[in-house]
């Protein structure tokens, strides 16, 4: 990881995702149905994209043969919520490789374990029903994620509010604008008198 890349990730990690969205004209924010799977989950990383058939995780196993430190698996699971695409075992394998989290348009399971592991996962649903492993699928091509196009290497930032995707070629400008917005909001908050009666 280059010095510049480290700086970008560290900076993104200090900013509310809401302000990062604001800095992209409030676009590139992922559908609100994709939620943190435990309170306080947050992540910053580079998209390692996966497309997989609904309820089937073969492509995720294949992607994990290649994903590495600092990557976020961004998985288009066709929005299917009838089968969990990952759980604590796949998350453990990913974490051991340095993968920083998953963002999934689909369902997951083993949420209690994921919280105990402090492994951030953002997904559409939880179900105990396990996945099949037949394919089809692929990785590291552009994918759709909750209405947003994600290219491999894009910056993915997620917190309690949800997920934003920053196109790689725009990230320095977007983060600079997000810093300005955040500072302006903090100043505004400080300047606002407390509501009466408190
Ligand atoms: O069985 C699976 O493929 C999903 C799962 O629960 C795990 O990764 O722990
Ligand atoms: Mg499991």
Automatic annotation (TrEMBL):
One of its GO terms (molecular function) is methyltransferase activity. Homotrimer. Substrate binds at residues 87-90, 109. Transmembrane segments: none annotated. Its cofactor is Mg(2+); a divalent metal cation. This is Putative 4-hydroxy-4-methyl-2-oxoglutarate aldolase. Pfam families: RraA-like. Belongs to the class II aldolase/RraA-like family. One of its GO terms (biological process) is methylation.
């Amino acid at each position: 990881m280059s010095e510049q890349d480290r700086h970008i990730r560290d900076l993104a990690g200090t900013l509310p995702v809401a302000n990062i969205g604001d800095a992209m004209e409030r676009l590139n924010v992922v559908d609100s149905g994709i939620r943190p799977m435990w309170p306080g989950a947050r992540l910053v990383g580079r998209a390692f994209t996966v497309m997989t058939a609904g309820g089937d995780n073969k492509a995720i196993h294949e992607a994990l043969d290649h994903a590495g430190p600092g990557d976020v698996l961004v998985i288009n699971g066709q929005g299917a919520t009838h089968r969990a695409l990952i759980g604590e075992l796949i998350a453990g394998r990913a974490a051991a490789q340095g993968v920083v989290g998953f963002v999934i348009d689909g369902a997951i399971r083993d949420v209690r374990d994921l919280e105990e592991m402090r492994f951030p996962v953002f997904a559409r649903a939880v179900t105990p029903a396990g996945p099949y492993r037949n394919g089809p699928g692929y990785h590291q091509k552009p994918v759709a994620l909750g209405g947003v196009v994600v290219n491999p290497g894009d910056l993915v930032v997620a917190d309690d509010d949800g997920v934003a995707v920053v196109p790689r070629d725009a990230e320095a400008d977007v983060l600079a604008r997000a810093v300005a917005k955040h500072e302006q909001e903090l100043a505004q908050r400080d300047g606002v008198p407390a509501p009466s009666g408190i």
